[in-house]
Specification:
Blueprint lengths: L4 E10 L2 E11 L4 E5 L6 H8 L7 E6 L8 E4 L11 H11 L6 H10 L15 H13 L5 E5 L7 H16 L3 E5 L3 H7 L2 E6 L2 E6 L3 H5 L5 H8 L2
Parallel strand pairs: 3-7, 3-8, 5-6, 6-7
Antiparallel strand pairs: 1-2, 1-4, 8-9
This protein binds adenosine-5'-triphosphate.
The site of adenosine-5'-triphosphate has 10 residues, from helix 1.
Pfam family, one: ABC_tran
Keywords: ATP-binding, Nucleotide-binding, Transport
Protein name: ABC-2 type transport system ATP-binding protein
């Protein structure tokens, strides 16, 4: 099957430093891809170049459709909402940016799917850290994107909130959404990802399924592989 997104030779430089050094990356329909690697490895920069949010200094990205922005959903690490508006108002505002208006049933559905039903009328600034993360994901889902990018969606959450986000990712994947996420939690990556891409110092060091990769390198699990390849 042809990939939805095909990135070739992506390069990014800041000042004199090259932080992404020629990354080739394909995203296939309905897969869940995890980008892993140390802090500063270049994961977010790579995602942002794929999303068209940061111009690459080299390389190219090809998409399956003419207007990819309409079909890509993004949750980056910074919170993207308006603090004085409620969760529902934030969603309605984002919908308006896409030229849509969420009907009451659609609003309920998206809030429920993201575990935010009780937070509908709460101002975004008063939501807990986990609820804010869920609102960021809900915002990314408003226009029902075909491909969803989640940058550390479970970072700094309590175990229950983490589980709820993982369950949401699984549900979205089952309903046909292609998902690319970053995480520093190797157990989580083993649980969720169909394919893992390990980035270290701006280059892809290993790529494969979470089951096959450790076998291929003769180690017991993904965490051992990570520690071995990111020295
Ligand atoms: N706007 C910028 N100006 C200068 N340097 C930057 C900029 N954005 C990122 N960098 C640098 O690029 C490198 C890669 O950063 P990036 O955020 O892509 O890493 P990451 O793998 O996502 O890390 P983390 O796991 O900590 O989120 C880092 O050294 C970072 O300091």
């Amino acid at each position: 099957m042809d990939p939805l997104i095909r990135a070739r030779g992506l390069v990014k430089r800041y000042g004199g430093r090259t932080v992404v050094k020629g990354i080739d990356l394909d995203i296939h329909p309905n897969e869940v891809v995890a980008l892993i690697g140390p802090n500063g490895a270049g994961k977010t920069t790579t995602l942002e170049m794929i999303l068209g949010l940061r111009p690459p200094d080299g390389g190219s990205v090809a998409y399956w459709c003419e207007d990819p922005r309409k079909h890509l959903g993004v949750q980056l690490q910074a919170t993207p909402f308006f603090p004085a508006l409620t969760a529902a108002e934030n969603l309605q505002l984002i919908a308006a940016f896409y030229g849509m208006r969420l009907q009451p049933g659609e609003m309920r559905d998206i809030l429920q799917r993201c575990g935010l039903a009780e937070a509908e009328r709460t101002e975004a600034s008063r939501l807990s850290g986990g609820q804010q993360k869920r609102l960021a994901i809900a915002i990314a889902l408003v226009h029902r994107p075909q491909v969803l990018f989640l940058d550390e969606p479970t970072a700094a959450l309590d175990p229950r909130a983490r589980k709820e986000i993982r369950d949401l990712i699984r549900r979205l994947s089952r309903s046909g959404t292609t998902i690319v996420f970053t995480s520093h939690d190797m157990e989580e990556v083993e649980k969720l990802a169909d394919r893992v891409i390990l980035i270290h110092r701006g280059e892809i060091r290993a790529e494969g399924s979470p089951e096959s990769l450790p076998r291929q390198y003769g180690v017991g699990n993904l965490e051992e592989l990570y520690l071995e390849l990111t020295v």
